[in-house]
Structure formats: C-alpha cells, structure tokens
Amino acid sequence: MNPLVLLIAGFFVLIAFRVNIGFSLILSSVFVMLWEDLPLASVANQMYSNIDSFPLLAVPFFMFLGRILNAGSITDRLLSVADATVGHVRGGLGHVNVFVSMVFASLSGSAAADTASVGSILIPAMKKAGYDPAFSVALTAASSTLGVIIPPSIILIVYGAFGNVSIGALFLGGVVPGMAIGLFMMAYTYVMAVRRGYPSSPFPGLRPLGHAVWRGAAPLLIPVVVLGGVIAGIFTPTEAAISAVVWALILSLVIYRDIPFRDMPRHLANAAVEFSVPLFTVAGAGIFGWLTAYLGAADIVVEFITRQTDNPYGIMLLLIGFLLLVGTVLNPISAVLIFLPIIQALGDTAGMHPVHMGVLATIVLSVGLITPPYGICLLIAAQIGDVSLGRAMIAVLPIVGLTVLVAVLSLWLPDLVLAFPKFVSPKLF
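Above: the chain's sequence. Below: its structure in token form.
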C-alpha cells in the first residue's frame, strides 16, 4: 500500500474515532515510519524542532491577553463603544455584535475567546430584544471568526513562523479582507433586520458617544501598539504580544482595578493550559509534515491538480475547495501546519505572492470554525443560545457564503490583500 495514502487514511480514521489531533498525527506517523523502516529517533527530533520557534511564543501571550480582557471590564467598555457607535442603526444589536467582534479581533486574535465572551452577553440580549435565536447564534459565531483574519491573528503568526513569510506583512494583508467580511456581515444584518422588523436603539447623542469612546480609548490602543510596533520594526510579534499584555495588566490592575491581583496566577495558569493543547498539535504536526514532505505529498498533489487545470485561478479555486473541506474536520492551526507545504506549493504554481497566499488560506480556513463537525465557534454560540446545531448551521450558511465571496474576491483582486502591505512595506515586494 502507498505509504502516503496509509499516512493520511490512518490520520483521518483516528480523527473519526475522536482521538486527539496531536495523538492522531503522531500515531499515524509512527505507524508509517515503522512500515517504511524509518528511524524513530526522527519523531522526537521533528517534534522538538517544530516547537522551537520564537514567534510561536506570541500565541500564549495573546491567549493570556484574552483572559485579561474577559476577566475585567475591558470587554464591557468595548461593547459600550460599539453600542454608542452603531447601535442606532436598524438591527442595532446585530451591528454591535459584529462591530465589537471586529474590535475584539484586533485585541486577542482568538475566535473562540470572542464567541464565549461577546456571545455570553449579546446572544441573551438579542433574544430578549426579539431577534431570532438561530440568527443571533449564527451572527455571533460568524463574526467571531474575524479574530482569525484581522491582526493580531494567531493563525497568521503560525503561518508566518512556519512558512517563512513576514508576519508583519501578513498582518497588514489581513486588515482589508477582515474589515470587508465584517462590513458584509453588517449589511446582511441590516437586510435581515428590515425583513424581520428587528429593532434599533436610539442614537445616544454626541456627548454619550464621546464618553463611551473615552472609556474605551485605552484598550483600543492595544491593536495600535501591536500592529504599529510590528510594522515599524520596533519589536517582533512575540514582543508585541508581551507589550499588549503589559498594557492590559496596567489597565486592569492599576487604572481600572477590576481584576484582583490574586487572580492573576489562575488566569496565567489557564492560558498556559489552553496553549498546551495547540502546542502538542504543533509538535505532532512537525513529524507529520516532515513525513509528508519525505513521501513527496506536495509534488503529488500539485501534479494531480495541474492535470485537472493549468489555469492559475482554476488551481486556486480547487485549493479553496480543498481547504473548505479540510476546515470542517480540523482547526485552522492544525490545517495550516499539516498542509502548509501543499498550500505553498500550489500557491507558487499559480504565481501567488506568499503574503497573498497566506491571507487567502487563512480566510478560507476560518470558515471551518463555523461549519460542523469541528465548528467550535458555532458549537459554543449554539450552547449559549440554547439552539440546536442543525438550526444554527442553516442560519449561518448565508454568512459562510459571504466569507467565501470575500475569499474569491481576494483571489481575483490581489490588491485587496496586497495593497496595504505594499504601501507600508514596499521593500517586501
């Protein structure tokens, strides 16, 4: 039996039996290495080399940042800014939901954290205001995926670190598509609000608006520090994450005083535990990725796809379809780590710039966060809203279509992704 087929089939069989992704990667790899009589010492070597990455240290700090944002009053302050800014538009709470997710995305880079924190507040509020529960759940889950695209994105950090692509340029490339998806979601919300008669809040006036913005101004400096510092070359993404955590700690412990200092060890420990699971997956992906490269997976896939079409857009559309399918069973980090050689090989074949390819792949894989069976954001939101997964899935399909539409537009119009990075860092191009 072909060892590559054996490797991939073994991995998905283990996934089907609900084996942890990290263990599935390692066990399927070890089995094929025994089958091929390869040295097992490579397992430890490749696992260690994959996690021996300084940029990867940014991830636990952003996870810790998300903990701080949720534990104190920062999330409430951002909700106040969003409500004062867009709450008066028809379907106000829906617009607040999307708006605050766009802002939250620029703070923590975590979609699941956004779903849990924002959803626990806004889903009950939307249901109470007369919004359809399934729509409330779908919009909350879908808008939270903006945390995967709008910088600082954990997925873009991982892609840049392991794909040897400028993380700063990836951050810049994710800004316009992420904002476009958010605006499309708000337009969809407006249409649904008009159709179903969803309410809006009265405009609070300039003075309350100014007060809300003033209360939220300090937290809103976090994305400025992160994105501005990385782009300007003042510090690395890891140092930017640390700076963001320090600023959030100053706000929560010293200025707002809404988190007891004695709770900090608990939040830090929880962030460390949360990071341990994806870190183990990263380690497992090290040996799996090395083995797929050794077995020539990238060349085989590229050859197969180019047999179907040699048109660059055709190649990329097939890749988009493949990543949409992969995203239904794997979280975006695992998908990037496992299929990165194939993604980059097809991108090179189609003549895609590495930054363009990285952002496009991230947009497509973000859809997997709201499509079962993985669909972690949709699962969290459905649980909060007490809505069946089937109803939530039907309600989220139009928003999935909007995200895919932006991905296709980004493919056909590269400057949606590349114009901002080219303007800020022309030397990279």
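The chain has two domains: 1-38, 39-428.
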